[in-house]
Amino acid sequence: MAAPARRLIRVLGAILACLVVAVLLFALAGWIGSSIPRNGDWLEPADGIEIMVGTNGVHTELVLPLVTAEKDWRPVFPATDLPVPRTDATHVAVSWGEREVFLNTPTWGDLSPGTVLRIIGVGGEGLIHASHYVRPAPSRDNRPLTLSRAQYRRLVTAIERALPTGERVRHDGYGPHDVFYDASGRYTATNTCNQWTSNTLARAGVRTGWWTPFAGGVMKWVPEPGA
Question: Where are the domains of the chain?
Answer without folding.
Answer: 36-219
